[in-house]
Structure formats: C-alpha cells, structure tokens
Amino acid sequence: MFQCQALLLSSSNCHGYSMLEFAKEEICNLLEKNNIENLLFVPYAQKNYDEYTKKIKEVIDSWGFSVSGLHTYAEPMEAINNAQAIFIGGGNTFMLLNTLYSYNLVSVIRERVLEGKLVYIGSSAGTNVATKSIHTTNDMPIIYPPSFEAIGLVPFNINPHYIDKSENETHKGETRDQRIGEYLEMPHAKSVLGLKEGSMLHVDGDSLVLKGVAGAVLFQKGGKKTEYFVGDNISFLLEE
To answer: Which stretches are annotated as coiled coil (predicted)?
Structure first.
C-alpha cells in the first residue's frame, strides 16, 4: 500500500524566519522518526551546486544531521539508491526536472519513495517535481525537459508561493488565480493546491496534513475554490 513519507514546502524562506526555520520542527521530526542521520541534497534547480549545497548544509548540519550534495557523487542513481532521505531544493523547476530526467532519476525516486525506502523533502521547485506535473509552476521555461510529467508522489498539482491578489493592487495583469484557472480548463488538468508562503504538506502513507505557519487554497475544475488552514487533514486529495 501507499508508504510515502514526504514533506513538501512552499519555499525554504518565509518572512520573519531564517532559512528553513519555519520548517525545522517538521523536518527534524520526519528524519528522527525514520532514524535518518544523513540527508542527500539535490541542488539541480540552481546553477551553482556547491554554493547552494553549502547554504543548506550550514542550516541542517547545525540541527544534528549531515548533508551531502548529490552532484558530488560520480553515479547519481547509485547515490539515490543508497540514500535514506533526499531534499530537493528550489530554483527553476524546468531546469530541475530536465536534469532529473537526464540522469534517469525520476522513476527511481518515485519507486523508492512510494515503497517507503526513501524519505522525500522538497521545497518550491522540489515540491513542484514531487507532484503529478510541473504545469502549475511559476517559473519561466528556460529549458525544455523531455516531459512535464513529474515524480508523482501526489496525484494532484501544487502552486508554490501562492498569493492572493490584494484588493488595492493597481497592477492589471493576470492574477495567480486566473493562471491556475487557465490550466484547469485543460482536459489533462488535475486539482491545484496553492501553498502560501510558510505552508507545507506532510505526506504520511495515506494521510495528508497541512503544516507550517500558513494555509493553502485548493482549486478544482468548475471554478471551485476552497481555503484550508494549518492542521487541516486533506487526505482526500490522495484519492484523485
């Protein structure tokens, strides 16, 4: 049955907190619960792998864990197969997914996570690629991956960094809601969960709970829009 253990963050940064501070308790609980000491960081969503890995390592190592970068291994697939937990960071979603496909890692990660052999933590772009597809990312398509289909740990789509349009905003361009609505008009569209800054999803087998310091908004076909709050159980989305 479904054995996925995952934490999907809207972002690594949240106003009023240092990097990953708002998610520290959830990340530590997830790793400790699974007796994990070493975390494999995937920096493929940004260009400077060393610098990006260093930033994450400085934070998470101080919590009592040990972080290493996937880019430092000669055989990425072997490293994934030997890892107990991975953290895929944010940046450009198209570049991230393209690189994962280039190393043939998409299906390997999917299988190991769904079998309960690999704990998954994702942030921003790392959360996008954990979903059904990357159709609802906010990023520019700076490179074209072989497919928009992603790892598929959850059967719906996510829009990280979701923000409602302010009523007094003077900008007349398309809102995030309108962009998501355009996607939902497509025959291949799945429901979209807009994760506000500071929110995250905890996937524990067939349980899906909203965590963090902010809520989320669910967009479904037909124009239905529902707001959820920290602590809400939204496990029904796993049945899509």
So the answer is: none
- According to the 3-state scheme, what is the secondary structure of 24-35? HHHHHHHHHHCC
Written as one letter, the residue type at 216 is A
| Active-site position among 139, 177, 191, 199 | 139
- Strands (E) in 119-179, as ranges, are 119-123, 157-162
**Residue 50 designated active-site:** no
Q: Which of 11, 12, 123, 124 is an active site residue?
A: 124
Query: 222 exposed, middle or buried (CB, 10 Å; 0-12, 13-18, 19+)?
Result: exposed
Active site residue 161: yes
**Which domains are present in the chain?**
5-165+172-239 (3.40.50.880)
Please indicate whether residue 207 is annotated as part of the active site. no
> What are 43-91's pLDDT values in tens digits?
999 999 999 999 999 999 999 999 999 999 999 999 999 999 999 999 9
Helix axes 106-114, 93-102, angle to 10 degrees: 90
Phi, psi of 103 (to 5 degrees): -100, 10
Given 68, 161, 202, 235, the catalytic residue:
161
Other CB atoms within 10 Å distance of the CB of residue 73: 15
